[in-house]
Design goal:
Elements: E1 2-6, H1 19-30, E2 35-45, E3 52-64, H2 78-83, E4 88-103, E5 112-114, E6 121-123, E7 130-135
Antiparallel strand pairs: 1-4, 2-3, 3-4, 4-7, 5-6
Length: about 140
Amino acid sequence: MYHMVESSSSSSSSGPITEDTIQDWIRARCGDTGSAIWSYEGTLYDPLDGRKICGVEGIELVRTLEDSSSFKNKSNNNRKSMLVAKDMKSSATILSRKLFCYQNPENELLTTIKLRPNAPKKSIPIDQSIALYDTA
């Protein structure tokens, strides 16, 4: 995720989001040390009929990268202008790695699924029972 805050507000319609609001959100998401671990647990449902499809458990590792506003202190002063608009006061990048495991009712990795209630079971390869997502 990439967040930016404008350095000055020219109208009252800019909303209640301030640099402090975003910094507080980043601290809540990534902790005071700049990294955190989150765990997830839930169920996936078919949006058409509400039928339970499978359970899901996950873990997420998050960490922040260096605030790009500090680039101005480095030897290449043009680097900041390439990453952040000139009217931005600060910015942050959060790296996230999520791992999800899809489970059958016995809390084992999902190996089969019925696409429709009366359809035959379809086999699911093990690499599709687990999903890994990297985002920034």
